[in-house]
Specification:
The structure is a homodimer of 237-residue chains. Chain A contains 7 helices and 10 strands. Chain A is of the alpha+beta class. In chain A, strands 1, 2, 3, 4, 5 and 6 form a 6-stranded antiparallel beta sheet that branches. A 4-stranded antiparallel beta sheet of chain A has the order 7-8-10-9. Chain A is globular. At the A-B interface, α3 of A face α4 of B. Chain A binds a DNA duplex (30 and 30 nucleotides) through α4 and α6. Chains A, B: This is CRP/FNR family transcriptional regulator. Chains A, B: Keywords: Activator, DNA-binding, Transcription, Transcription regulation. Chains A, B: GO terms for molecular function: DNA binding; DNA-binding transcription factor activity. Chains A, B: It holds the Pfam family cNMP_binding.
DNA sequence: TGTTAGATGTGATACATATCACACACGGTT
DNA sequence: AACCGTGTGTGATATGTATCACATCTAACA
């Protein structure tokens, strides 16, 4: 029986659920540029990413894109369609990098989730944390202005996708275009470009091969008056 | 008598959970202007509101306030502290109107939730819907600009707190100051004031005794290119 | 090697929004 | 009635941000 709350580590999270998914109905290849699903489509399936990268985003009517997360191996997508009575995907799942996903039927997963307390616990824990992350993230995006939104996004990217280098810098291990960043923080490509260049000038970060390395994370944190909330909360996702 | 738009789900949602909460540890009076809890405080308890109104918000370091929801009788607050290993409240619960809350221990509730599949189901359903609501709401706040943010907020307020009048108008049954609205949509009191006055000029809405009545909801929807997502999603909360 | 498509960089400009500094309105005191 | 405190209304101005229109770079590839 689940009593004590386990340490929150990406690696350990959702282990039982992932195990279940691995025994999935079937495997599906995904190709860059295609959509695994799009918002509005009826959702019958969830996916466990085995390899490749998928960007989850939501469009507004006038073509602007709000990017929520970038998922890679080990992550589950389509999860928010569980237990809803309007079973449509809310996000677009665009493939950024070829790979494979394990496919599982939503009905089956809902059944299993309710039958197995361990699964239940893991899923509720994940949902709670998801909601908590979301609150802080959007407060930042809305209240800090566009520059603050970018800085906040970069900080979260460090926590979500960052690799610490020997010199203490943090490599955000994702190929990100200016436009991608703009979609994450609700601004324009041009604005992102100018802000990134300013940060480059100051030596706060550098960019090689489309990947950003943050040299002075503290500078960014100071600028947004970061309250150093726990790393499991201060994330892109 | 008027038909509350929100009746459809709010009343039915969470029934078993609410029943559980009603058999709570004890009852606590709440007084206007005080905080039931504040962000950062260790969370041992959840609350079911029996009467009164509570505003849930989050502050940024520089004093700006992001308002998430206004809760009244029948709603549960503090729920996102369940199943996390960093058991701190993430929001401030400010009492807007005197009342009473039922108090329940978090530990006990977690236990009960896992033991009773019906409760489990209700809670997961609520969490999923919460996450879905949040995604659409913040996309709007971030991508639509401040005017769009206000319009979107007004539309959601209609769905969450609206009462349909005989002439088809919708009364948002909450006393809202300009500053409150500003906190909901991430702008300033002055901007809200100007935008509301413009809408008054056009006859889109009117204000009496601090409560807003929307006469032409479709105008607002058109302006934000509303995609008419389901009412259980397009809400303040 | 030249061509191309996609990405980045940048000035000029327009527009949106915040900020500041008050005046005004209103309901509840004393 | 005069006096608060709190909320609203509004002009002037500053700042932030998007938009447009290109130039430039880069990697892929024919």
């Amino acid at each position: 029986m689940m009593t004590a709350l386990q340490a929150f580590e990406e690696k350990k999270r959702f282990v039982h659920l992932k195990e279940l998914l691995r025994s999935a109905n079937h495997i599906q290849k995904i190709k860059k540029g295609t959509f695994l699903f799009q918002e509005g489509m009826v959702a019958n399936e969830l996916y466990l990413i085995l390899s490749g990268k998928i960007q989850m985003s939501k469009m507004s009517q006038d073509g602007k894109e709000m990017c929520f997360r970038i998922c890679s191996a080990g992550e589950i997508i389509g999860e928010l369609t569980l237990f809803t009575n309007d079973p449509k995907y809310l996000l677009n799942a665009k493939v950024m990098e070829d790979g494979e996903v394990a496919v599982i039927k939503k009905d089956y997963l809902e059944e299993q989730l309710l039958l197995n307390p361990t699964l239940t616990f893991e899923y509720m824990q994940w949902l709670s944390n998801h909601a908590r992350r979301t609150q802080t993230k959007f407060r930042d995006l809305i209240l800090l202005g566009k520059k603050g939104a970018l800085y906040s996004t970069l900080i979260r990217m460090c926590n979500s996708y960052g690799i610490r280098l020997k010199d203490g810098s943090i490599l955000i291990d994702l190929p990100l275009k200016n436009q991608d960043l703009a979609n994450f923080c609700g601004t324009t490509r041009e604005s992102v470009n100018r802000m990134l260049n300013a940060l480059k000038q100051e030596g706060i970060l550098s960019i090689h091969k489309g990947k950003i390395t943050i040299h002075d994370l503290d500078y960014l944190k100071r600028e947004v008056q970061c309250e150093n909330c726990p790393v499991e909360i201060c994330r892109i996702e």
